[in-house]
Amino acid sequence: MQIPYHDKRAVKNVLSFIEQTRPDVVASVGDDLDFPMISRWTRGMAGEYAGDMQSHVQQGRAFYGRLRAVHDGPIHVMRSNHTDRPLNYLRQYAPGFMGYDALTFPAMLQFEKHGVTFHEEPYEIAPGWLLAHGDEGGQNRTPGGTALGLARRWGYSVVCGHTHKLGLQHDHDVVNGRVTRHRFGFEVGNMMNLKQAGYLKAGSANWNQGFGILEVTARRVAPVPVVIHSNGTFTVDGTTYGV
Predict the structure, then answer these.
(1) pLDDT digits (tens, 9 = 90+) for 186-206
(2) Cα–Cα distance between 114 and 49 in angstroms, integer?
(3) 184, 140, 130, 200: which is closest to 165 by C-alpha?
(4) What is the Cα–Cα distance from 165 to 209, expressed in whole angstroms?
(5) pLDDT tens digit string along 99-132?
(6) Contacts of 46 (CB under 8 A, 6+ apart)
(7) Phi, psi of 160 (to 5 degrees)
(8) What does the alpha-carbon distance between residue 119 and residue 116 come to, in Å, rounded to a whole number?
(9) How far is CA 215 from CA 121, 125, 129, 191, 223, in A?
């Protein structure tokens, strides 16, 4: 979402989808907040002195409050380069505050209050599938390629974000007509309002709004990419949400 640059219509519709379909687990691949004021790109510039961190954090808290109101199951959140920014900023410019719990990202977003589990390392979100952020390895411009690169390295299928792309790739080995090994790389897009991404030249990027579903039956997992259209709507199993 990269709050405050999130697409409010898309976020609202996804929350409605969660409320109506009642998934077992909800997971975020990270970059919940952007934290532009403590980015290295704004160091020493006007953005660093904007004084708007509290507003951005409040929006993040409000989102997780709304999510908890519509979903009573587990919620998992993955660390990410953007949500690492508070810790990195303290480490570089205010190390005396290191170790103060209130300044950690989970404390800022009140994850304990909302029953959210925060992960510092890739987490097995489904049988044979790791939840990651996507910055743990090299980047690939083709949607799904970054996740597949991680899958090949780790030996698990991988669902991640970071690239802002929506895509699914696979790597299967077959011997004598039998699948001996299979891995998927699944990138689940973003829920940003691209008009808010002022750092994009001419507002151009090969990004895709969307999210992903992992349908689990016993130990079999089927990944389903969901495209969010420019008006914030999307269709799952023949039902369109957000109309």
Answers:
(1) 999 999 998 877 666 666 778
(2) 30
(3) 140
(4) 7
(5) 888 999 999 999 999 999 999 999 999 999 999 9
(6) none
(7) -150, 180
(8) 10
(9) 23, 11, 12, 21, 6
